[in-house]
Amino acid sequence: MAVTFRLRPVHGLALMLIIGPLVKLAAPYLRSGPKPVTPAAVAAGRELFLREWTAKDTLTKGDGLGPVYNAKSCVECHQQGGPGGGGPVSKNVTVYGLVNPHPKRIAQSGVVHQKAVRPEFQETLRLIHPSLPNDPFIPLDELTNRSRRRSPDVVVTQRNTPALFGDGLIDAVPDETLLAHQREHSTAARLVGLSGARDGKTRGRIARLADGRIGRFGWKAEFASLSDFVKAACANELGLSNPGRPQATPLGKLNYKAEGEDLTDAQCVLITDFIRALPVPGQILPGDRKEAALVKAGQERFAAIGCADCHSQQLGPVAGIYSDMLLHDMGVELESSTGYYGSIIPQPAIQNDRFASSEQPTPAEWRTAPLWGVADSGPYLHDGRAKTLREAIELHGGEARDVTAKFLAASPLDQDAILAFLKSLRAPSGESVAVR
Ligand code: HEC
Ligand code: HEC
After folding, report:
1. 272 C-alpha to center of ligand 1: Å?
2. pLDDT of 118-128, one tens digit each?
3. Which residue, by CA, sits nearest to atom 9 of ligand 1?
4. Is the dihedral of CA 94, 95, 96, 102 positive or negative?
5. Predicted confidence (pLDDT) at residue 346 exceeds the cutoff of 80
6. Contact 68, 120 (CB under 8 A)
7. Ligand 2 pocket, 189 CB below 6 A?
8. What is the tens place of the pLDDT at every residue in 246-305?
9. What element of type H or E holds 266?
10. Which of 83, 227, 284, 398 has the fewest Cβ atoms within 10 Å of its own Cβ atom?
């Protein structure tokens, strides 16, 4: 016998009474949560991420690659452990900052591009300041040599390519989580002074951007969302202008004008979708029981001596990230310029226009690098100056000074255990890609 159920008006009313409040409760989550990404979008985004762009590229509506650029594809830099990974020092990005406004109206800080589609567009550091070489970059070991004297009017630094695995989760961390981490640190910090004091005590602050949002991407946490960073990367690295960002104008050809915009917003969204869908790094325990025990012991020491004060295992809903996503003063050891990623409007002192003027990051402040996947993302630190994990730890100064001293005072076995723990934090074993 067939049972039929007819929806009478009274049932409809009951349903509305039940579902109505549920929808209301869920509304904020429905609104703020990331949109589900379709496999087709991810595949299309992957193609754009791997594509070797050319001048006047047929996939663009503008001048294509360039006029100035750092690489021909995203994956040329983001490649270790598969597309989306970190990059070697040879792919570092050179950034500059000028103390005085430039007579030729060159932006006060920005990127010096390593390549150009035509020789007359090629950028060099000399175009920024007469004291600098007629090359697009200064080798990293020369740059990080603090005994070298330089003009006080200009700063040149480099940025190493970070891995993008797990960036989708970072994008979705609620602001409240970051604020809570700041509060945790600041109770102690208020007693000894604000961020920037060099007393070896851990504190940290959120990166408050000029538009009021909280920064979470980039070594200085200067971009609030993954999609903002992707648009900046298209424009800065590849010279692909888009609705979120104009492409860079050659430093020596400030009157360069291109017809049309290279990428549509939809193309940028696809690239962002691809990054969001990248696998998340995790811990891989060694098969050998003794080695696995060493990793476990290292993880405990890591927390016990205070590494986890900044490299927090849990960030709100995200487990295993080993970062609080806050800016920390890392001391003269890791000082760089305030020169940053992107070009800015000229102002009287070197200011990073992405941050509110009262919130400017100091040259020594950096976002706690997430340590997930760290075993496969060398070299380390913002400019890749540390070739090994041990070197990276030894270079921690400022707020991390006391913790670093504890690491150095620990027994060789404890030190090895901490390093073994870091080496268990692996990039997701994705596909690998051949890059020239
Ligand atoms: C020349 C090398 C290079 C190329 C090419 C490149 N990147 Fe990057 N990428 C970097 C560097 C260096 C940083 C760090 C910049 C900073 O913090 O100042 C970075 C950072 C990022 C970040 C922020 C990661 C985080 O967790 O903070 C994203 C997202 C990103 N890149 C996406 C892209 C996309 C998309 C492309 C292609 C359109 C691209 N990149 C091309 C070098 C590169
Ligand atoms: C006061 C906060 C703080 C403490 C404490 C701290 N770190 Fe860090 N760590 C950072 C910041 C900030 C960076 C990024 C610095 C830079 O790029 O110049 C970093 C970077 C790193 C890196 C390099 C990651 C990469 O991708 O390049 C490693 C490895 C690391 N820390 C391990 C440790 C270990 C192990 C300890 C404990 C002995 C520790 N840290 C203690 C803040 C801290």
Report:
1. 12
2. 999 999 999 99
3. 161
4. positive
5. no
6. no
7. no
8. 999 999 999 999 999 999 999 999 999 999 999 999 999 999 999 999 999 999 999 999
9. helix 265-276
10. 284
Number of other CB atoms surrounding residue 92 within 10 Å: 24
Determine the distance separating the centroid of ligand 2 and the alpha carbon of 400, expressed in angstroms: 8
What is the rounded (10 degree) CA torsion for 72, 367, 344, 64?
A: 10
Ligand nearest to the CA of 305: 2
The span from the first CA to the last CA of the chain, in angstroms, equals 70
Tens of pLDDT, residue by residue over 365-416, are: 999 999 999 999 999 999 999 999 999 999 999 999 999 999 999 999 999 9
Q: How far is the CA of 369 from the centre of ligand 2 (A)?
A: 6
The residue nearest atom 40 of ligand 2, judged by CA position, is 307
Residue nearest to atom 37 of ligand 2 (CA): 307
**Amino acid of residue 105:** R
Contacts (Cβ under 8 Å, ≥6 apart) of 434: none
**Is 78 touching ligand 1 by the criterion CB < 6 Å?**
yes
List residues bridging with 223 in a β-sheet.
217
Torsion 278-115-374-205 (CA) sign: negative
- The verdict on the CB of residue 70 being under 6 Å from ligand 1 is yes
198: CB partners within 8 A, 6+ apart: 329, 331, 398, 401
Q: How far is the CA of 330 from the centre of ligand 2 (A)?
A: 9
Nearest CA to ligand 2 atom 1: 400
